[in-house]
Specification:
The chain has 97 residues and is α+β, with helices and mostly antiparallel strands. The chain has two helices and four strands; from the N terminus they run αββαββ. The chain has a four-stranded antiparallel β-sheet, covered by helices on one side. InterPro entries: HATPase_C_sf, HATPase_dom, Sensor_HK_TwoCompSys.
Length: 97
C-alpha cells in the first residue's frame, strides 16, 4: 500500500510539473477505517511549458491497473481549469493464522 501511495503521488506531481507549470498543487491523504484515500489536484497552469518533456504516456494507465490489482479505485481527469487524480486503496486483513 505504501508503494502504491508513493507512486500515485509521484506520477501526479510529475504530470502537474510537466503539463501545468506554475500551478498550485495539493496532496491530501485520508486514513479511513477500511481504506486509505489519496488525492492530488492542481490548478490551471500559470505559464507555458518551457520545453516538451518526453513521456511514455503510460503513467496513469499503470496507476489504474495497479489500483485494480489492489482492489481499489482510481480516477483522473479535468477538474474545472485544473486536474485531479484520486485513488482509494482498501486495507486487506490477513486471514492466515
Amino acid at each position: 500500500m505504501q508503494r502504491a501511495l508513493y507512486r500515485i503521488a509521484q506520477e501526479a506531481l510529475t504530470n502537474a510539473a510537466k503539463h501545468a507549470p506554475g500551478a498550485l498543487v495539493r496532496v491530501g491523504v485520508e486514513c479511513r477505517r477500511d481504506s486509505v484515500a489519496i488525492t492530488v489536484s492542481n490548478t490551471a497552469p500559470t505559464r507555458s511549458p518551457a520545453f516538451d518533456l518526453p513521456g511514455g504516456g503510460n503513467g496513469l494507465i499503470g496507476l489504474r491497473e495497479r489500483m485494480a490489482l489492489l482492489g481499489g479505485t482510481f480516477t483522473a481527469g479535468a477538474d474545472g481549469d485544473g486536474y485531479t487524480v484520486s485513488a482509494t486503496i482498501p486495507h486487506h486483513t490477513s486471514t492466515a493464522e
